[in-house]
Specification:
Length: 194
């Protein structure tokens, strides 16, 4: 269907079978939302006007869709990607942590997240309870992080340290997954549509 010279989706802004509430309410994104998301993932600095031209909508309509994606939490923010190696933090380390359970583990997670060199803390299953990703300048700095910061946190029982010996360029996971969702939304007969 065409409205005011623009192609409109038959089922409104949210696909048939969704809860109708849009992003964040369990409903899937439509192909226009996915196209906007893909464009932002390719270049988050792309202007709303340029995105609007690429998806065939008005700039105010695209701005509203972006705002809705942000409000719903689909888009959590925009950030610069930093090459920490160029800033002297070229050693990437993973630390598997065995910690006590319960409230003391929550306190340990909070303390670990407060360590400036700790990039990420994940609660995991398996022989370890937590998995950290941290950045260090060199072996001596890593030793200081472990001995003086991480091992000093109450509730940390044991750690296993894995040092990356070669950083590969990060995979464009967000972009690749969004592009696959857009491809499925654009081709309803494509296998894997769920």
């Amino acid at each position: 269907m065409t409205v005011n010279g623009r192609k409109r989706l038959e089922n409104g802004p949210w696909p048939a079978g969704s809860s109708g509430g849009g992003p964040g309410s369990g409903g899937a994104l439509d192909r226009i939302d996915l196209a906007i998301l893909v464009l932002l993932l390719r270049d988050a600095r792309r202007s709303v006007r340029r995105i609007a031209a690429e998806v065939g909508m008005s700039a105010p309509a695209v701005a509203e869709r972006i705002a809705r994606l942000e409000r719903s939490g689909v888009i959590r923010g925009y950030r610069a990607e930093v090459d920490w190696g160029r800033l002297g933090y070229g050693v990437t380390v993973y630390v598997a942590v065995t910690a006590v359970q319960g409230r003391q583990q929550e306190e340990a997670v909070t303390a670990l997240r407060a360590v400036p060199e700790v990039e990420q803390v994940e609660v995991v299953t398996g022989p370890s309870d937590l998995l950290l990703r941290l950045r260090a300048r060199d072996q001596q700095h890593l030793r200081e992080c472990l001995f003086e910061r991480i091992w000093a946190i109450p509730g940390i029982h044991r750690t296993e340290t894995l040092v990356c010996i070669g950083d590969l360029p990060p995979k464009a996971f967000d972009l690749e997954l969004a592009e696959s969702l857009l491809a499925r939304a654009s081709d309803p007969g494509r296998p894997g549509r769920g």
